[in-house]
Design brief:
Elements: E1 13-16, H1 22-30, E2 35-38, H2 42-49, H3 60-65, E3 69-72, E4 83-86, H4 101-111, E5 119-122, H5 130-143, E6 152-155, E7 174-176, H6 181-192, E8 199-201, H7 205-235, H8 240-247, H9 269-279, H10 285-295, H11 297-311, E9 320-324, H12 340-349, E10 353-357, H13 363-370, E11 383-388, H14 393-396, H15 400-406, E12 407-415, E13 427-428
Parallel strand pairs: 1-2, 1-4, 2-3, 4-5, 5-6, 7-8, 9-10, 9-11, 11-12, 12-13
Helix pairs in contact: 4-5, 7-9, 7-10, 11-12
């Protein structure tokens, strides 16, 4: 016998994982109804209880507006909830294979408190089938309950854009789905409470999973194309940005730019899709080609820099290079899967001393995640080369006098993001 679903009024939400995705979602729901924000990181819970969000996604004022939101790291507190939303990371391992460990552990945690009639909604990016084939069996095993009889599942992929203050959780259209048509309708109605941009109810969980994973795969392949074009244009001694601006005058030309492709979405999600494709016996040619090209951009950047330094008569071994920016994108403290570290590693192979300056990044996190030390302020008259890797707003204000104060008389300035005046740079990607 199938157990009855909770009605919309009696729903008490729990959001599992309070990072870049979970906290904005919990805060938005917390303005409307009771929400338990759960994270295994006790320090994170303490900071949020005092109104501090290190991700800078939710301000102290916004947290205060979420009057119905409480924070906890205690498992017993989750027993009050009957709808659980999972927003934990889904990274890849050192071999570029999907790492479902955080997702499995979150499912085990929920399984310990799961009751009859409860719903578990996943937001983490996965390959099609992961919710029902990987997560649901864990919920069943730990809880002893039967899927689609005692408890139910949904999938509504996150569309958070870290650092973006215009496209917020409530203003981005939300895809929803459920393990039965009735669950899908209920999941959709839950999200409609906070999503002013509207929702799109998919026909199945697998459709919703697939939709999410191709959003970022499409962007990855497009950026790979532009990166390849940049490499070609550089060999032809043509300015890539000027080409893109000229082509962009056509109404349907897509405005992508070359660059390093990191972060928790574009640089990771395609591997989830290619993993599933290979598991069913298909080798995805274009997606993997795009990944290889984008993953090789750090090596390309350094090879171009070294060539230019040699042409200018600058000794490469023992040179000092200032690297501006370490986060995976501008005006955001997120260091996850940043590909700037590829540039650091490649420069070190040449015996170059690298100073990294990033006013947005956490020095503790940079050291913990990558073993890299951040420089609070660059040295004066010290650098043989400068690479602007992340277009933080602080760097966009730099002028010739600023660069002159930091660099030696003979130097190379390499702007990967078109953030500086062209006349100040020796190279642009």
């Amino acid at each position: 016998m199938e157990h009855q679903l909770p009605d919309i009024q009696s729903i008490k939400l729990a959001v599992i994982g309070l990072g870049y995705v979970g906290l904005p979602l919990a805060a938005e729901f917390g303005k409307k109804r009771a929400v338990i924000g759960f994270d295994i990181n006790a320090k994170r819970i303490q900071e949020l209880q005092s109104g501090v969000d290190f991700t800078l996604e939710v301000s102290k004022e916004e947290l205060a507006e979420s009057r119905h939101l409480s924070f906890t790291c205690e498992l017993d507190d989750l027993r009050q909830a009957n709808v659980f939303i999972v927003t934990v990371p889904t990274p890849i391992d050192g071999f570029k294979r999907p790492d479902l460990t955080p997702l499995i552990r979150a499912s085990e945690t929920i399984g310990k408190v799961l009751k009859q009639g409860d719903i578990v909604i996943y937001e983490s990016t996965v390959y099609p089938g992961a919710t029902e084939e990987d997560c649901v069996p864990v919920l069943e095993r730990v809880s002893g309950l039967k899927f689609n009889q005692d408890f139910f599942a949904g999938y509504s992929p996150e569309r958070i854009n870290p650092g973006d203050k215009e496209h917020r959780v409530s203003t981005i259209k939300k895809v929803t789905s459920g393990s039965t048509p009735e669950v899908g309708e209920l999941v959709d109605s839950i999200y409609r409470e906070i999503i002013t941009a509207g929702t799109h109810l998919a026909s199945s969980i697998k459709v919703a999973e697939a939709a999410k994973v191709i959003e970022n795969t499409q962007r990855d392949v497009n950026i790979a194309l532009i990166n390849e074009l940049a490499i070609i244009f550089n060999r032809l001694n043509i300015d890539t940005l000027e080409v893109l601006e000229a082509a962009g005058t056509k109404w349907n030309f897509l405005p992508f730019r070359p660059g390093l492709v990191g972060g928790h979405c574009i640089g990771v999600d395609p591997y989830y899709l290619t993993h599933k494709a290979q598991a069913i016996g298909y080798h995805p040619e274009m997606i993997l080609a795009g990944r290889r090209l984008n993953d090789g951009m750090g090596q390309y950047v350094v090879s171009e820099l070294v060539k230019t330094m040699i042409q200018k008569g600058i000794q490469v071994q023992g040179a000092r290079v200032l690297l501006l920016g370490l986060t995976f994108k501008e005006n955001c403290p997120d260091l996850r899967n940043t590909r700037v570290v590829d540039i650091v590693a490649e420069l070190q192979e040449y015996g170059v001393k690298v100073d990294i300056h990033d006013p947005w990044a956490s020095p503790e996190e940079a050291m913990h995640e990558y073993g890299l030390e951040l420089k609070a302020e660059p040295d004066n008259d010290a650098y043989d080369a400068v690479i602007l890797a992340v277009a933080h707003k602080q760097f966009r204000d730099w002028d010739g006098a600023k660069l002159d104060s930091l660099c030696k008389a003979r130097r190379v300035v390499y702007d990967l993001k078109y953030a500086l005046d062209k006349n100040l740079t020796d190279m642009r990607l």
